[in-house]
Design a protein that fits this description.
- The protein is an alpha/beta fold.
- The protein has two domains: 171 residues, Response regulator (Rossmann fold); 153 residues, Response regulator (Rossmann fold, 3-Layer(aba) Sandwich), CATH 3.40.50.2300.
- Strands 7-6-8-9-10-12-13 form a seven-stranded mixed sheet, with helices on both faces. The chain has a six-stranded parallel sheet with strand order 2-1-3-4-5-11, sandwiched between helices.
- Helix 7 links the parallel strand 6 and strand 7.
- It starts with a helix and ends with a helix.
């Protein structure tokens, strides 16, 4: 009986290896995905979805979370990163994928520079040089915002009279890094831009009202603001909107008048695909580091209807309704 069972098990494994080679391959290979945030944050959820699609079953995937929107201070983040390092060292995976700046800084750059374990990064904002990247064991995708198209639309909407812009964002390292890039772009065009940093919903309410004094509002990313509730934010925005607003983050589509949205899925898919190539034997350093290139346009007519300035006819004709994104987002939950 034992011999029969052994024969059947061996036959099933051989069948899987022949008919489903990726299933057998995945049993041999292991990957770890280190997410800077936690489940439920739309941006990183989309990266996760992309990672799975890009890997296409090439390895057994384990997820670890730095949870840096909850662990906001550096000491807490460093302590958490050491916990994750212990797990990575114990697992000794074939590839590690890290998403967004905190995981790159606190896990990859701190502990695995030029290590034997290959790493793929994604969602790293704007510039890899502060971390000394790329290393011998890395490749990845850099995240850039579509500032050019957004700025061009702001100019069209204000009939070339754009003089002042307010920038609203959560007060954290990533958003300040992004503001530095955005500020440089707008100042070069002789447009004054003022940051309005928020730590909680009450500060957001004041910032949003103050921002209506500008010609245009950049509603960047408020994720991590204490006391934030989507329904309350939407009500406040509809009650107090006077100027056209724009964003580049998917989670801000319900609140901004117009959106030029970066795609988390694109970041994750590239990272997953690169990891799959590494699993097939290609050195990480031989895979080119690139920037994201895709973005979607969305129009939120509920918000723009309250604004004194309207988006251009070209934008309206090419944009998707924000309700399409809401429906898609709900279907993924």
């Amino acid at each position: 009986m034992m011999k029969v069972n052994l024969f059947l098990f061996s036959s099933v494994f051989v069948y899987l290896a022949i008919v489903h080679p990726k299933v057998a391959h995945a049993q041999e290979k292991t990957c770890i995905f280190v997410n800077s945030y936690s489940p439920g944050y739309h941006w990183s959820d989309e990266i996760d979805r992309g990672v799975v699609a890009g890997l296409d079953g090439a390895c057994k995937l384990e997820r670890l979370f730095l949870d840096s929107k909850k662990n906001k201070d550096k000491d807490s983040q460093k302590a958490k990163s050491l916990e994750l390092k212990t797990i990575i060292d114990q697992r000794n995976p074939d590839v590690v994928i890290v998403s967004d700046d905190n995981a790159v800084e606190l896990v990859l750059a701190q502990h695995y520079k030029n290590s034997k374990i290959p790493f793929v990064f994604c969602g790293l904002n704007w510039d890899i040089t502060p971390y000394g990247l790329p290393y011998k064991n890395t490749t990845g995708m850099v995240e850039v915002a579509p500032i050019g198209p957004l700025f061009a639309e702001a100019r069209k909407a204000t009939e070339q009279k754009l003089k002042t812009v307010s920038f609203i964002a959560a007060d954290n390292e990533t958003q300040r890094k992004e503001f530095a890039r955005v500020e440089k772009y707008f100042l070069a065009a002789k447009v004054e831009i003022t940051p309005l940093w928020i730590k909680n919903f009450e500060q957001f309410k004041k910032a949003y009202v103050d921002a209506q004094q500008s010609d245009f509002v950049l509603l960047w990313n408020t994720a991590g603001a204490d006391g934030w509730k989507d329904s309350d934010a939407k009500d406040w925005i509809l009650k107090n909107t006077k100027k056209l607003s724009a964003s580049v983050y998917e989670n801000m589509i319900p609140f901004a008048g117009i959106s030029f949205v970066k795609l988390g899925f694109e970041q994750g898919e590239y990272a997953g695909n690169a990891a799959a190539q590494i699993l097939e034997g290609k050195p990480a350093r031989e895979i080119k580091v690139i920037q994201n290139s895709r973005f979607d346009r969305y129009l939120n007519k509920e918000v723009t209807a309250k604004a004194s300035v309207q988006p251009s006819a070209e934008f309206v004709a090419s944009a998707k309704p924000h309700t399409e994104w809401l429906n898609q987002s709900a279907s993924k939950k």
